[in-house]
Amino acid sequence: MAGENGWRGGINTEQATASTSHSSVMEIEKVPNNTDSKQETDTNKEKEESTRTVPFYKLFSFADSWDYLFMFVGTVAAAANGVSTPLMTILFGDIINSFGKDSNSKDIVHEVSKVSLKFVYLAIGTGVASFLQVTCWMLTGERQAARIRSLYLKTILRQDVGFFDKFTNAGEVVGRMSGDAVFIQEAMGEKAGKFIQLMATFLGGFIVAFSKGWLLTLVMLSCFPPLVIIGAFTTMFITKMASRGQAAYSVAAVVAEQTIGSIRTVASFTGEKQAIAKYNQSLSKAYTSGVQEAVLSGLGFGLFMFVLFASYALAIWFGSKMIIDKGYTGGAVMNIIFSAVAGSMSLGQASPCLSAFGSGQAAAFKMFETIERKPEIDAYSSDGQKLDDVQGDVELRDVYFSYPTRPDEQVFKGFSLSIPSGTTAALVGESGSGKSTVISLIERFYDPQAGEVLIDGINLKEFQLRWIRGKIGLVSQEPVLFTSSIRDNIAYGKDGATIEEIRAAAELANASKFIDKLPQGLDTLVGEHGTQLSGGQKQRVAIARAILKDPRILLLDEATSALDAESERVVQEALDRVMINRTTIIVAHRLSTVRNADMIAVIHRGKIVEKGAHSELIKDPDGAYSQLIRLQEISSEQNASHDQEKPEISVDSGRHSSKRMSLLRSISRSSSIGQSSRHSFSMSFGVPPEINIIETAPDGQDPAPLEHPPKVPLRRLAYLNKPEIPFLLLGTIAAVVNGAVFPVFGILISSMIKSFFKPPHELRKDARFWALMFVVLGLVSFSSLPIRSYLFSTAGFKLIKRIRAMCFKKVVYMEVSWFDEADHSSGSIGARLSADAAMVRSLVGDALSLLVQNSATMIAGLVIAFVANWKMSFIILVLLPLFGVNGYVQVKFLKGFTADAKKKYEEASQVANDAVGSIRTVASFCAEEKVMQLYQQKCEGPMNAGIREGLVGGIGYGVSFFLLFAVYATAFYAGARLVEVGQATFAEVFRVFFVLTLATVGVSQSSSLAPDTGKAKNAAASIFAILDRESKIDSSDESGTTLENVKGEIEFRHVSFRYPTRPDTQIFRDLCLAIHSGKTVALVGESGSGKSTAISLLQRFYDPDSGHITLDGVEIQKLLLKWFRQQMGLVSQEPVLFNETIRANIAYGKEGNATEAEISAAAELANAHKFISGLQQGYDTTVGERGIQLSGGQKQRVAIARAIVKDPKILLLDEATSALDAESERVVQDALDRVMVNRTTLVVAHRLSTIKGADLIAVVKNGAIAEKGKHETLINIKDGIYASLVALHMSASS
User: Fold this and answer.
1) Are 106 and 191 part of one and the same domain?
2) What pLDDT digit, counting tens, does each position of 950-971 carry?
3) Which is it for strands 394-401 and 450-455: parallel, antiparallel or unpaired?
4) Residue 285 sits in a domain of what CATH number?
5) Whole-number Å distance between alpha carbons of 886 and 961
């Protein structure tokens, strides 16, 4: 919120000072910066909030009886499903015993088929249980989350408007409804079921193990603490290293952001090389920590595998002891090993569930808190009186009021106003005087702190809110339409309106004509916020909506100000018809709309300074009303001269970053400044726009849709990675070794099982040998894993580093107009550099190593199995795909099925977004119920989809479990048959079984980790799109001539120019201007006339569309660009300083290699030495982000020193002092006067004081030079442009 208030504050101060000189310039300029501090405060707030959670059982507060049933069934099923794994290990033990005991092959089939049948039963039971588990939990999660969402929206809609000013914006509400609700849903849906299942496996596993043999189980248990510790330490180290890598890379990102964000300064001071060097330096740091992180994770994982295999070794050795001493069976030993491992593994898998619970509880806190909030002004409340009819007398009596967001700024102190029934009252006054606040108080969006608002003599608070709002119709400046048809929008006015009533209302509102012309008529969709209709059409639909309500009191807040003359006439006509016999209150800027009012009240700073009819007020020439009229007349003349643009945005004509303007405007509209913070005073009253609107560099209009770059053949990527081929080859070998580990593990286990049934002396010898083999396997794993991750990560990270460096270098040398496009902003380029490069790495490093490893696993597995017994191998091979399916589904389940919930609810969120964004309209038309109905309607589809998903997920999960156990049953039964006919031995059956199943499990689980190759391919395409683009004005280009001796004669010859991002706005038409060597030329003109554009063209940020610019008679296109830019020193209105020391910032003028003496000499000249020496660290003071630690005047002087160090022949001053207060301006102006001696200087300025002394003043108008000469000559031309600018300037500053 801090930021938001800052914004609003910014706009407000801007209105207050609009008519004085320039303080407002700073105001608008500062607006964007506030967002930084906002983000900081927000993150701190989030930290505080994230710690507040609700207890877990509270998540289920909104469950109904069906939900309780679902949760009960789901819990039982999850427990049953969890126990299935330990039960399976028992059957496994039985199978081993059946095979091992009976060398008599006849009984084998009988024994084994009995156990296989049990497997089938288990398969069916588990299938059903897991289906019920997933389905029930997903259903109840979906239902409860939907209930929480709609309750939340319902509560949000009933809050008072003040709540929205203070706490919430539409984005946050939608974010909570889509994001937080998903977290809550996960926590109380499938994750809850999963957790119960895992706990059941854990308990079941150890119960089975202890019951089969407690001694061996205890020995097994001793191995688990080291595994847990290793796991924990590895994750800890990895996160530490990862964050170190993040930090190192974020330094690089900051360099990129700063460079791209101030590309004009970088280009002007030819600082590209420095930026590139700095960026590459920070990339190296990121590279080393990336490789370290990979090696550490490899080591940790390797160690983990080693301990795991070592514990198998221990268990086998100790198990064989137990068989000899304690009479265990071989089956029991394997049963204990497997069930203990299963139990402990399930404990490890529970951690994602716990974190899901945590985030769910945290998300719920904020949502539930809101759901329980009772508003101060409650639209749902049915208390309060209703009258039979309202006369429509409105009175504000002694009202004191300030907005809840700015409690210390009193808008009204004892404000009184009475409007008799049936009359029309108009409120006029400058922006921010409190006109619209009157309307907000009558609508009861806010309650006054003291005093009362009366309708028919009864305090507004006494009425039932819904009823009284039903009697008041509001038409505002920016009518809010909802994303639905015209008919629905009009129908908001009255519940259950018939089609006849809707048509009649449209007729009255002058809207039926245009509606009938539309192909779908009343059923035409208006688009989001009514974007499909023109302003006048929207306004008339809004008026029809108000008419349908048939209100006694009509409130028109600037209802026609945003329209052009033609629409205004039509809308005004409609309003005149509607106003008959109703109490009407009009707020307007345009005085033409209020002439006919019965009473006009002029409001100034929350007081009524004059009231009466137009004819009376006009008689007092010094009255406030007459002054307002005069101001408007001046401004309309100005507007007339303004290329017939809409006067409303006249200011915005030429180079204004219209994005920023519209941002300001939209903020001011949505903001709580009801006091008509419509357009700043200067815009509506036309105090010369010249004075307080800044020129900024053009900003792209609308972000163009991202063109999808063409796909890239992988060859090119591989080619980029060419220097790392040796690493990749060695890495491949390591990956192959690593891949063979699982199949070998299978051989070891099966051989061991066979030994368990040998006589004691052989068993002792075998056990020692096989245990040793397990340890060896562990060692192999321990050594190959870190080697593999080191080699692949080195290759991958080197690739990232290379790609980033290449891209950055390319970007820095792009021509400036490339950065004007919205998708080349510093943010999006930064994202491309960081995310896309990392994506591409995953394609080379991770994907490649996984591919190699998986192929190795599969090949090794097949070879071993077929060598052992080809018939058995074929049988299992046929069943294997089913296994793969199971592995995949399991992993998918661990990640969760709900991930797509956000997407599904997008349409429903749109409804919420609309409603919250236009809460005043919803409140004023009591449309809360309607919005809720619409919302629930939009939720039905996604909700059913969610339920379907639950069923499908459940079926998939159930089937996968069923298949798993069914495969076991089939495989062993088939094995038994083969043993019976002597085609296989006991050991071979197990060897083939274990080798192939383990291989499959290895492959299916690791492939789920495979990176998203599709995304990576797109990333590669976007990177090559940058690498392949040639810069149109490239300062790294070494071709071009240089001049021995620069005099500084500059000439613009017939220059025409348009900004590439705004091809329809002509900035220069055939502009000619000569600037003689050593002379000072000043450019003046209205905002947007192209004064600063001249400087951009001169620096070759852009090239003219036609015509030439020459330096000493040579076309600047022919000069060596880098050298040419070094001849010029630029000081602009908002100097961009880099976040470094003052010394570094000044030295930047000489590409960083200026001597101490040069730096202090430049600072002396720039009047900066004194204040710098006064700072504690002197020249080593860091200036902060964008120079924020220095005042405006100090920044400006450092910038001047930076320009002087260059010792330029040509000095360009773009509004260099406009943003300063009088004192700093004097000092800076002094500095400039010293610097300008003997240099060709081009000055762009607003303030007269700065240009009076120029050798030549050129007035730019309509893209050409309209007048030029010295100040004395120009000021005496009667009705001259310069003379009138001066006159305006004088009157404004007085």
Assistant:
1) yes
2) 887 788 888 888 888 888 898 8
3) antiparallel
4) 1.20.1560.10
5) 7
